[in-house]
Amino acid sequence: MRNVLKAGDAFGTHRALQPQGALPQPADRLDNDFSRLFAGEMLVSVETLNVDAASFRQMEEAGGDVGERVLSTVRERGKQHNRVTGSGGMLLGRVAQLAEGRPAGEAIAVGDRIASLVSLSLTPLRIDEVRAVRPASAQLDVVGEAVLFASSPYAKMPSDFADRVALAALDVAGAAPQVARLVKPNATVVILGGGGKSGVLCACEARRAGGPGATVIAVESYAPYAQEIEALGVCSAVVRADARDPVATRAAVLDETGGREADLVLSCVNVDGAELSAIMCTRDRGITYFFAMSTSFTRAALGAEGVGKDVDLFIGNGYAHGHAEHTLDLLRSNASLRQLFERRYG
Amino acid sequence: MRNVLKAGDAFGTHRALQPQGALPQPADRLDNDFSRLFAGEMLVSVETLNVDAASFRQMEEAGGDVGERVLSTVRERGKQHNRVTGSGGMLLGRVAQLAEGRPAGEAIAVGDRIASLVSLSLTPLRIDEVRAVRPASAQLDVVGEAVLFASSPYAKMPSDFADRVALAALDVAGAAPQVARLVKPNATVVILGGGGKSGVLCACEARRAGGPGATVIAVESYAPYAQEIEALGVCSAVVRADARDPVATRAAVLDETGGREADLVLSCVNVDGAELSAIMCTRDRGITYFFAMSTSFTRAALGAEGVGKDVDLFIGNGYAHGHAEHTLDLLRSNASLRQLFERRYG
After folding, report:
1. pTM for the model
2. Between helices A163-171 and A197-210, what is the axis angle to 10°?
3. Which of A314, A331, B4, B205 is the most buried (most CB within 10 A)?
């Protein structure tokens, strides 16, 4: 049991060394001396670093050994925060100690296996040894320790899923709970990029929350994904359209709804320029929800104004209370969805 | 009275010549033959073009006569859509004809003076003569005609405001109505950039909607603006903090609220990097609303996830039903606010 100092805050500013008192993500260097902990911290015995794909590729292309590069970054910064790409990744490990001051009602115990759902770019980390580097999955097996703050989301790793399937689901864990909050029974819901990873979760959740009377329409231009989401049987229609073409997408969607615009449009695409399609398929005072990280703030804001659409525009929040369990439960409740994840991401 | 063809749609795709059937904003060239109109169109006799400031400056710096450049762009594209900056502006004029198929319940008549609240970059326009170029206000007085579509927002120019004051208010007309929708009585509301143009409107509306029991806190780093918003008397406190520093901003705000996070945080700043301040001042399940066009979609989405904040993140929609009248009424209802606008923007 490490000694616990009182001075910790929920956001981890107490671990910022350079500059002192900063948030840990923008900080240049973090305190990774875990001989003592601060109030609110969770000490984790790290097994695996799941490095961000862009960061891993950059390290490979820079030449030399990726393991050595990670060791050197962590030695210098106290975190695996790639200076070139700015990105981190996540980690898998076991809870080693829970300091006092953790959030109330937390269902976790020492020895539990967890995945951090917060970027490595803000997670204090010490690596004692790199045991293996697995380029195919951008993973490193290591011996080391890390600390999660009171505000840092994480998930208990489920025992009934393979690690890779669980990580794929946890990576987009925010999507389904937000859909569950927003979809009313019998609603009309449109999902752009409905065959992708977050798209299929949104479609299944929209059907679950909206019930049999809901109209759930997936828009998907990639033929294999369109077939897969169709085979799931949760959509009223799967429209093959390019979400970058707002006129064609709107026409194809209205064709399926008998001219009715959607109460909720979810943008889960991975391409630029789909903002206007999402907005133009949304009804007056409906909601356009952008999960797509390719979304442009200005194109969405000015796009809605340009066509005079009085709709609520949401930036997808990757975090929601209970999001990890919610998403894993959705996979457990739908065998076809689970098989799709195991086939595609297992 | 021009002849009206039936084929118009609400978004103006019928006016796109290149490519045909596109939305008018991305279209390269629009049909500006107003010898006939299409269903849903409003024909406007144009008096003044209020050119986007960035576009006007680009034309000045490119050399030659700005009037000639505008004439040449409009001749070539059928709209004042600057090819370098991509921006447009707005127009002032008088309603010349209302084609059948306009939105129901529209309170406008031939002869009324209006301002378009949709960009010139998507407004079909023909210019017969440039009468004056006013560099100080980036305006051109012209003789010409334009068409607004059924979906294009516009405002009837008020007779009780100077044009410049009305245009300054109409430019940010979306802000106050959104605040009125979101602020409940006795709510705690924080406005980042509370002394700026949209910030002061948000602060006054938050007080009006939240009532005397509401806690309204403006964060403003520019001293003259901080003094002006303080003098309005609508804020519970005006905090001098730099919204780019989330730790300091959060501490200063919580200091004023006795440690309570806000139900609603409005970001009205004009600088980069204020996303995390806005998110970190918002309570669990509260709303963070980004009016600032400098907002980064990814910084907001990943920022909330990184600190585990389960908040609703909104992209500010510049359009809301009745937004122009709402905002002008707010100015009419508060003499000090109106004087601030007349002093600053008149």
Report:
1. 0.92
2. 70
3. B205
